[in-house]
Amino acid sequence: MRLRVNPGALFTLFILLLFFGGVLTARQWQFQARLFPWTIGIPVMLLCVAQLAMDLFRATEADNPDDVGGLMDLPVDRSVPVSVVIRRAINTFGWFIGFFLVIWLIGFIIAVPLFVFLYLSVQAREKLRVSLIYTGAMLIFLIGIFHQVLHIPWPPGVFPAPQEKILGWIDTGTRWLEAMIGWT
């Protein structure tokens, strides 16, 4: 077993350092604000350390430069035309950029369910019923866990009114439900 520095190891090291910086930065924040970066960042850092060890110390048979079977753990299909690969990459990054743009414009509460619905109905071509069920499940999960249980402060978007209105409805509904059930 010998040390092998390769592009996969360098990429893993980059991701590890990126998340380490995020976790390190978040330690100065209030508990609720650092909860998400730590919940995601610490497990990702542990997984990156494991992946880095595999990347650096992976035993290889012969150093055959034509063998790409295990490169980054992804099989390579050389029969797909480059134009198709580029079109698929642009499509994927378009969805990512669109998702972040909508979060920035109108906030998380609307952007996440909207993204789920649009992705399922447009990209995955799911039936309307399936898209609505998964969108509703995501909305319930998002509000139930992050808003009601963890009390995450939602950053406002550029246009904060829709998100604030929805959060107002949710809080009013919660107070009404608590009064009906008798919770305090």
What Rg do the Cα atoms give?
22 Å
Overall mean pLDDT stands at: 86
Q: Could you give the order of the helices and strands?
A: HHHHHH
The helix tally amounts to 6
The stretches of 5 or more residues where confidence is low (pLDDT under 50) are none
Compute the number of structural domains: 2
Query: What oligomeric state do these chains adopt?
Result: single chain
Please describe the topology of this protein.
Layout: H1 7-26, H2 31-57, H3 82-106, H4 108-123, H5 128-149, H6 161-181
Helix pairs in contact: 1-2, 3-4, 4-5
Please give a structural write-up.
The chain has 184 residues and is mainly alpha-helical. The chain folds into 2 domains: 59 residues; 105 residues, no CATH class. The protein has 6 helices and no strands. The chain starts with 6 loop residues before the first helix and ends with a helix. The mean pLDDT is 86.
Identify the notable features of this structure and list them briefly.
184 residues; mainly alpha; 2 domains
